[in-house]
């Protein structure tokens, strides 16, 4: 078996998870759309509210245009640039902007907002695409 560099292995693993073929360069596919949401709970100390939100996000992950999902919480890192006041993060990848727009209006997403929005005080969203070349 031919040996791979760690970087090539990681890139091919991520690409396989996204259902994409990543190029050998250091760039992601041109059309890749990344949607990262940070949820700040109304009751930040409530383990039950956090668990309920995570339950909802697991349901939301079933939207068919989503290629890869990560549900997370603040890591135990302590550098001064780290933002740790959110409760839960939702990171998902789409093949393109159109797939993300389908997600935004999909019945599963609309139901998620309807059923779980009472849990959060604030939501911050970072959407990104690859740079124009």
From TrEMBL:
Which InterPro entries does this one have? Dabb (IPR013097), Dimeric_a/b-barrel (IPR011008), TAT_signal (IPR006311)
Please list the residue ranges annotated as the Stress-response A/B barrel domain.
33-128
Organism domain of life: Bacteria
- A Pfam family it matches: Dabb
What name appears for this protein in its UniProt entry?
Answer: Stress responsive alpha/beta barrel protein
The organism encoding this protein is Larkinella arboricola
């Amino acid at each position: 078996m031919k040996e791979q560099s760690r970087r090539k292995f990681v890139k091919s693993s991520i690409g396989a998870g996204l259902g994409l073929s990543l190029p050998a360069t250091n760039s992601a596919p041109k059309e890749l759309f990344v949607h990262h949401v940070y949820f700040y709970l109304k009751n930040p100390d409530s383990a039950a509210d956090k668990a309920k939100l995570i339950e909802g996000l697991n349901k939301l992950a079933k939207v068919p245009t989503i290629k890869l999902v990560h549900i997370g919480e603040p890591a135990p890192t302590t550098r001064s640039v780290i933002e740790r006041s959110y409760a839960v993060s939702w990171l998902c990848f789409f093949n393109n902007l159109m797939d993300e727009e389908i997600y935004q209006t999909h019945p599963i997403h609309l139901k998620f907002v309807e059923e779980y929005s009472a849990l959060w005080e604030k939501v911050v969203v970072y959407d990104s695409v690859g740079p124009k070349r």
